[in-house]
């Protein structure tokens, strides 16, 4: 097995190992306020200009406008203000509505290898893609290709495959419900379930834990619940950067008397205090304090922390029987309590303290708040999901809600805060390598074919299959598979062994530069743009983090007349690749998206009267049994589970590294080199460390270092990072994704969910060798 080309002569898969000019300040004490407003306006003005930019912002998250393309935080159900967006939503829109364009001139000016020497910021900043481009066999430059020829290339490679499982169809969570539904239909008619998605790297662990324990892989609360509850645990999530409008809701929670507890190795600015940018007080700098308690848990110490919380719950119950544990809920709706109690009895406070890195008194304080709260919600994101034992940790968090009965009633429940704006909807539409049998039966009946039942590849399987030349064709519906995936160099080798890699994209990214024998870029319309089809202007639908499905209609002129919508691309690709094999009226779907929604309604439960309900301002909630205490698990009961502690053993000198987001990026899209809240300006190649850990290694602030990861005897190195002393527990470190992805071993994945362990990479840090 050999790569088609040798590594050395090829475009680099990693962002350039080159420093900018770091300026370092103190972490900020409050989030948003005027700095955020100034930052939003700057991004909009620089990219889209005041007219196009303002028009876009005023349509975003409005009933009748388009859904913010950034995160999945919900919009208010009722009244909306004129400005339903945040700084990072504005950046996402600025990047999509930019006036900059890249066409054939750009691609003839720069070879692919030259493009690879540029930073991720530069690649994204180049502008919107405007025409389909082909990187032909042994070519150095992308050249324009007609849509017809582009689809012929795809059809040719798909038809040449020895079997359908040689093709891999990735989806990123920005695709609309309509595009995603047709895409999975095309893939299954082609004959495979190889539908890896960004969720495999994201909330898969949440889905796995929640499906098993409460019978639905989604959250169980609404925005109103968040604002009116008595207690919110925020675990492993940085809302100030990644879900900024959550701060508006958290401010409400606090003003309504609720308490917020932060559980995070870092005290993130967004949970310290919030200055509302649309209130005079906020603009004057007056901030509402948010978290009343911060527990600086060690990386991967959450399972131990939760065991501490649960022990406190049982102790409080023993002190005053019938006051804390909800025996009625357990008896009526759940099972597994006895085994759970016995197992928890065996866990000592010493191990809890040691593994969480927290002291017992602090855990008891947090437990008191949770216990005394009539209603409580736990929110979490990647800080919990990207560890080897992520599923166990999330199951334990569910235990906390189950044994106290704080679930399935107003203002109480679990809230995995989703990432991409439609990642939850894509799953609902069937983007998953292992959909349940019921889905297949309904799909087959509606479209009169037999969909394959063997499970397909998830993200890690897909990379390994391409590496082993079992996967030969890669198609990406959005996203940046190369840079988002673990083990950048291994993934690059995998991509290079393909016959064809094709990306449906709005903006240029590194994934377009590391290709198979042939590479295709298929440029599509963005969310903000008018989608004109034969039957008129179309809208699409998306589902947010709280299960609300609503319409999104672009209002701006498309970036180029040569762009196709994602739906159109999928339809034409399917028509050409499947030919007579498919009876699906692909071109009818392209002409009129209502016809797609009619089919979704017949295949997926919860979408009755879809076309009508999608047109209701504000959309509609999908059914969620847990809200009525219906648990759709195998046993029909909520499962209280036993989740043994399974700490990561570090050898001397080793640290646990989390790879996370700066304030100026959306995943692999880099908007700028600043991380304002953490006091970092103009540099991304930084590693945050505890100052004692620095001292122990003889490292000085801003000293250049190399980071080496260790896994099953293998090492991987990321060169040239500057050390930043930062408040975090000893033994913990942090660096930005995607720069640090070279360190994440391909084989290091969570049990059950197979999510890459991007938040607990074992590393050593040494002075940089020039
Ligand atoms: N502006 C912007 N918005 C985004 C994104 C973006 O890149 N930019 N990405 C979107 C996507 S796809 C997603 S999934 C979400 C991600 O949203 P987040 O999950 O908030 O993203 P991360 O930056 O990965 O932050 C993880 C947080 O977990 C903490 N953490 C790390 N390890 C641990 C641990 O072991 N235990 C605990 N308790 N905490 C830990 C980190 O300190 C950090 O605060 O955001 C979405 N929204
Ligand atoms: N080390 C490490 N790795 C991680 C993570 C981490 O925390 N640490 N987080 C993981 C997570 S949570 C996620 S979700 C994944 C994200 O993985 P992806 O979803 O694959 O990555 P993105 O960076 O969001 O994709 C950006 C690209 O999407 C394209 N795009 C933007 N808008 C549109 C659109 O409307 N339509 C289409 N077709 N294309 C569009 C643009 O070309 C852009 O360059 O990364 C994962 N990787
Ligand atoms: S919170 Fe998320 S969805 Fe809402 S405007 Fe900000 S980035 Fe967009
Ligand atoms: Mo994500």
UniProtKB/TrEMBL annotation:
InterPro entries cross-referenced by the UniProt entry? Asp_de-COase-like_dom_sf, MopB_CT_YdeP, MoPterin_dinucl-bd_dom, Mopterin_OxRdtase, Mopterin_OxRdtse_a_bac, Prok_molybdopt-oxidoreductase, YdeP_MopB
Where is each Molybdopterin oxidoreductase domain found?
A: 128-500
Q: What is the name attached to this protein's record?
A: FdhF/YdeP family oxidoreductase
> Does Metal-binding show up as a keyword for this record?
yes
Which CDD domains is this protein grouped with?
Answer: MopB_CT_ydeP, MopB_ydeP
Tell me which cofactor or cofactors this protein depends on: [4Fe-4S] cluster; Mo-bis(molybdopterin guanine dinucleotide)
The entry sums up its family as follows:
Belongs to the prokaryotic molybdopterin-containing oxidoreductase family.
Concerning Gene3D superfamilies, the annotation shows: 2.40.40.20, 3.40.50.740, Dimethylsulfoxide Reductase, domain 2 (3.40.228.10)
What's a single GO CC term here?
membrane
User: Which keywords accompany this UniProt record?
Assistant: 4Fe-4S, Iron, Iron-sulfur, Metal-binding, Molybdenum, Oxidoreductase
The organism that produces this protein has a lineage beginning with: Bacteria, Pseudomonadati, Verrucomicrobiota, Opitutia, Puniceicoccales
Q: Name one GO biological process term.
A: cellular respiration
- Name a Pfam family for this protein: Molybdopterin
Please verify whether the record's keywords include Cytoplasm.
Answer: no
Q: Where is this region: Disordered?
A: 1-31
One GO MF term = molybdenum ion binding
